[in-house]
From TrEMBL:
It comes from the Archaea. GO terms for molecular function: hydrolase activity. This is Type I phosphodiesterase/nucleotide pyrophosphatase. InterPro entries: Alkaline_phosphatase_core_sf, Phosphodiest/P_Trfase. Gene3D superfamilies: Alkaline Phosphatase, subunit A. It holds the Pfam family Phosphodiest. Residues 242-265 are annotated as: Disordered.
Length: 744
């Protein structure tokens, strides 16, 4: 059995779906004041404990024999000992019960958090007690006060499976000594169940009250059972007037073709929540997402903006689906003009191409994702949800369908998306209570789907990865622009093989496709030209060693909570600048500086936000921002700065390759140069940009360098000279394909 670490709140014994303020209703919600009595068993959550005989991870607290106050559980004197957890009526959770066994148990969707179960089928799985006797146990309610009425009505959520010989009875007794059997189930056609299963129902029966009766007690007895199925109940109610149990919780799943039976024990679910603004997510009550953050890996990150692409859904989901940035996939706004999905298909399509035996599934309620081919028809089952539904209703149908698919079928890779939060933002604004409510509803839906994974019959043999993300942020009633609120996204992953941690590298939207592919055993080919990495991949970028040295702004107008800059270079590297720059200009940009994307591209963007191939800490030479502190260039002081690498060992090499990510915006008075030198000798220019270079933004530069005979070390230098107060140069991830000298 693979031990689990992660996916739900099971360590506390509570299904994740019950932690949110709203969600797919798991029990009808009438005014509790209209009932004479109500019991949901949820107060037993703190009494739940780990498995005893069942093979369920001991971190999962999901059962108890302790009934609510005033209630009792009775066992027949001759009932043999079986599986401890199911020795008579027990109180459990959906995730625990369905982890013990499947066989239709997951269909009890009327049950809320904790419910009561009599399960002779599981009881008989330890030492076969049914070979010695039968299962016979009675659940007895507390005493219920009665009104001065001729009758009352008893209702309860019920999930019952019949087997030959098994008998179930609901008996009501009164303080007058009278007794009534109000329901009787057995294998006979004339019984109340017609001799068949009664699954996920809410029976309501009229109970005649004898003259003078002031209290009653209800008993649920399951008897004469051997290895014979089960009976579960929840949400017990008594009322003076007739009532019904309401509709089954949530909508029925959308009728779709069955998924092909999956072939992989490694499975992935990508959950797409459209238009969730990061700071509003943090403000909302999101217990499920909070657990994902604590137990998983990931974080917020900044996206592109115009002119590269709008911070909108078309570019956002295209980036997530394909694993490449907009300059490759071609979608720059919601028109989808220029899309390059044939060259850069979605990750589910890539899975199908590489391993057709994988079972893929996608469901979504924003039509363009299907119609435009963001997720292609190569996916085994693709389900666009009709847009005539309200966004709340379509979200519920999506979750119901995905839940059913996860619990009752065997897909390997899924993309599940709902547009609710985005649409509420457009109609009510990001500052509305409705926007927060939509986030909280989404959080409850996340819990429903994580619970569905936990309830799979084959869960213990599987390695699940769940990724949660959004496509863009929000500002006011919309998005698409360059504000930090619109451009901030997030990526979080949680799974069996992931422990809670702060990733070494900032997660990006393009990482999702690569991570999903890797998890199901598909290795991206170099020709796919993906931009992302597998989440959790360590950094080999020397600039990222400076993360812990980043500090708040000193002179620029950026909130002090943003730790985003330092002029201290990596060990062995150096930064020089012209003497005339000393004590002049903006402190943070006096020569090459090392900054985070959030810090550098928070103000005065001018394309800075579109260095999409940078990650974490970036080296920046920015004469425009330097000049904003007192206009030194206008006073005739030139900007000139050089960043020089540590020495790399090149002994015995004929050539080496220097590679780095570059983002350059030039002007007529600006020159950018790359030099190499050997053994401390003179520098030789290997690359030059000037104001005439237009196509030098967010690209990877690779320079093949010949190594002189007898040379032992090489250094690389990046120099920017500017006599005009415009432009910038940023570099990231410098690598040389020779090992760095151990003496440096």
């Amino acid at each position: 059995m693979r031990r689990r670490s992660y996916l739900s709140a099971l360590a506390a014994g509570i299904p994740l779906s019950s932690l949110g303020s709203t969600g797919l209703s798991t029990a009808e919600t009438q005014d509790t004041g209209s009932y004479l009595f109500e019991e949901t068993f949820d107060e037993l959550a703190s009494a739940l404990k780990p498995a005893s005989d069942e093979y369920i991870d001991d971190s999962v607290r999901g059962w108890t024999h302790t009934p609510p106050e005033g209630w009792s559980v009775e066992l027949a004197a001759d009932m043999p000992q079986g599986t401890t957890e199911w020795q008579g009526w027990s109180f459990t959770t959906d995730a625990f019960w369905t982890a013990a066994a499947g066989q239709g148990r997951s269909e009890f969707t009327r049950a809320d958090s904790v419910f009561a179960v009599a399960d002779p089928d599981e009881w008989d799985d330890t030492d076969s007690p049914a070979s010695e006797g039968t299962f016979d146990s009675t659940l007895v309610s507390k005493s219920i006060d009665l009104p001065d009425e001729a009758s009352v009505y008893l209702g309860f959520a019920s999930h019952y499976r019949q087997e030959d010989g098994q008998t179930a009875d609901v008996v009501v007794s009164f303080d007058t000594g009278d007794e009534q059997t109000v329901l009787h189930y057995d294998g006979a056609a004339d019984s109340d169940n017609g001799g068949d299963d009664v699954r996920n129902a809410y029976p309501v029966v009229e109970v005649s009250v004898p003259d003078g009766a002031q209290t009653m007690v209800v008993e649920w007895r399951l008897s004469n059972a051997r290895n014979d199925w089960y009976w579960a109940i929840d949400v017990v109610r008594v009322a003076s007037e007739p009532f019904d149990g309401g509709p089954k919780p949530g909508p029925d799943p959308i009728q779709l073709p069955d998924s092909p039976d999956g072939t992989s024990d490694e499975k992935v679910l990508v959950l797409g929540l459209d238009g969730v603004r990061w700071d509003k997510l943090r403000q909302a009550n999101t217990p499920v997402f909070d657990r994902i953050r604590e137990d998983g890996i990931g974080g917020p990150s900044q996206l592109y903006g115009p002119p590269l692409a709008d911070s909108s859904s078309g570019p956002g989901w295209s980036t997530i689906a394909t694993g490449v940035w907009p300059d490759k996939h071609g979608v720059t706004d919601n028109s989808f003009e220029g899309k390059q999905y044939d060259t850069y298909p979605d990750f589910l399509t890539l899975m199908e191409r590489e391993n057709p035996d994988l079972s893929t599934f996608a469901i979504m309620d924003w039509d363009p994702l299907s119609e435009q081919g963001t997720f292609s028809d190569a996916i085994d089952v693709k389900a666009p949800v009709e847009s005539s539904l309200s966004w709340w209703d379509s979200g519920e149908r999506i979750v119901a369908t995905a839940r059913d698919r996860l619990r009752n079928q065997n897909p390997d890779a899924l993309f599940v998306y709902w547009v609710l939060v985005d649409m509420v933002g457009h109609t009510k604004s990001v500052g509305s209570d409705d926007y927060i409510e939509a986030i909280e509803q989404s959080d409850a839906w996340l819990g429903t789907l994580l619970d569905a994974i936990e309830a799979r019959e084959t869960r213990s043999e599987e390695d699940w990865l769940v990724v949660v993300t959004t496509d863009h942020g929000f500002e006011g009633f919309g998005h698409g622009g360059n504000t930090i609120q619109e451009r901030t996204s997030f990526v979080y992953a949680i799974g069996d093989s992931i422990s809670g941690q702060t990733p070494e590298r900032q997660p990006e939207a393009v990482d999702i496709a690569h991570t999903a592919l890797d998890h199901v055993g598909v290795t991206p080919a170099p020709g796919w030209d993906l931009d992302g990495i597998v989440l959790g991949t360590p950094s080999n970028d020397p600039f990222d060693d400076l993360k812990n040295q980043l500090k708040p702004a000193e002179t620029v107008d950026i909130d002090s909570s943003v730790l985003g800059w330092t002029r201290t270079p990596p060990t062995g590297w150096s930064v020089g600048f012209a003497s005339q720059m000393a004590e002049r200009g903006t402190t943070e940009y006096r020569g090459w500086s090392f900054v985070s994307d959030e810090f550098w591209a928070r103000r005065n963007l001018d394309g800075r936000q579109n260095f999409v191939r940078a990650r974490d800490v970036v080296a920046v030479a920015d004469p425009e921002k330097w000049n904003s502190g007192g206009n030194p260039i206008d006073d005739g002081f030139e900007f000139q700065t050089t960043l020089e690498s540590s020495a790399f060992d090149v002994s015995g090499r004929e050539t080496v390759s220097v590679e780095f990510r570059s983002h350059y915006r030039g002007t007529g008075g600006q020159i950018a140069q790359v030099f190499v030198s050997f053994d401390g000798g003179s520098q030789t220019e290997r690359l030059r940009y000037d104001g005439s270079d237009d196509d030098t933004s967010s690209r990877t530069e690779s320079l093949d360098v010949s190594v002189p005979a007898e040379a032992s070390t090489m250094t690389v230098a990046w120099r920017l000279t500017a006599s005009s107060a415009d432009g910038f140069w940023a570099i990231d991830s410098p690598t040389i394909d020779a090992p760095q000298s151990s003496s440096e």
